[in-house]
Specification:
With about 190 residues, the protein is an alpha/beta fold. It contains six helices and seven strands, in the order E-E-H-E-H-E-H-E-H-H-E-H-E. Helix content is about 30%, strand content about 20%. The longest helix is centred in the C-terminal third of the chain and has 16 residues. Bound molecules: iron/sulfur cluster.
Length: about 190
Amino acid sequence: MITYEINDALYINLTNRCTNNCSFCVRNHPEVFEFDLWLVREPILEEIMADLETPELYDEVVFCGYGEPLERFKEVIEICRHIKQKGVKTRINTNGQANLIWNRNIVPELCGLVDSISISLNAKNAEDYVKLCKPEYGAAAYFSVLDFARECIKFIPEVWITVVDVISAYDIEVCRSIAEDIGAGFRVRHYC
Ligand code: SF4
């Protein structure tokens, strides 16, 4: 399934791939999700666009599926251009590792195309992050996520750092402080 609706938003599912393997990831618990998001193969841009003929029917278009949307950064840029032409708000839910994936700072290229970005942090330090999220890039991933968030503050109007409430109340508060220091909003997502 490439697109799915939740309330007034249209969600786009671009890939199963992710550079993390979080213990709480919905990919490991597909039974809890009402949509079948597993992609037998990744859709090409034309197939995605065919699902996006009328984005103006929605309040927001959100890049969020089974995997990390910025694994398909080039397609995200093309899709955002199309959606912004229709005057619709865009949001990306990301693990924040795109600059590692693409080996360069991609954030300036999101300027004017992405209205809101939600970055999963989920840990108060690199050691905890490695245990919980099992990143391909190891501890470097955690520091890259923080740098990515700082870059997003410069170029994207709304930046959120999120955690899932599988971590302790103390850890949540440390993450809240990290988000405040960066200048981002902070959200706690409920693990279901
Ligand atoms: S970052 Fe998101 S998509 Fe990737 S493994 Fe973790 S929860 Fe799943």
